[in-house]
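Researcher: Can you fold this with 5-O-phosphono-beta-D-ribofuranosylamine in place?
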Amino acid sequence: MSNKFRLGVLGSGKGSNFVAIADAVAAGKIPAEVAVVLSDVEGAGILSHALERKIPARFVPPGKFRTKLDEEAEREFVKILHEAKVDLIVLAGFMRVLKGDFLRAFEGRIVNIHPSLLPSFPGLEAWKQALDHGVKVTGCTVHFVDAGVDAGPIIAQQTVPVLENDTAESLHSRIHAAEHDLYPKCVAAMARGEISVAGRKVIWRKP
Ligand code: GRF
């Protein structure tokens, strides 16, 4: 096992943010390695993207609940992530809320990306919420994960304009493109130790 900064990536979907991060790692833009990719969805795209890149990847059954992991699943996720000696957990479209024991096991070491400018539009389909609300600017947010939903301290945000004739799809894909730019930069800064938190305030130390 190398002594590089180690990432554990969790996702439930197609894994385009994971791909952006894995490509940035491969290009030497993130001084880290992806140690493991885990999904609560069997056959999720994120798992095949990882396996194609020869990164260890596994489906872990989430248990009986729909929006969170059950106790046994939570223990299994934590065990695998500990065994993989991850330094940072990167949520990339992981559709379950992480609870107490998981959060305690990796306190201050879990980050997420959300497709809106938080605290506006937390929760599901944030791009649709933005469109329905009629905002003129939305975007994406990288933040630390705490016990709230899309609520932890904000690391960085990138804005995306909402255009006159946007559909949910066109807006969503513009936000996705912004995510693919922002998330690798934030993970790189984490890996370089340039980010610290004081309460809700996230401080970036320039290299
Ligand atoms: C992204 O839009 C992210 O903001 C949200 O889930 C989506 C994941 O997309 N948390 P992908 O699986 O990375 O393509």
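Model: Folded with 5-O-phosphono-beta-D-ribofuranosylamine in place. The radius of gyration is 16 Å.
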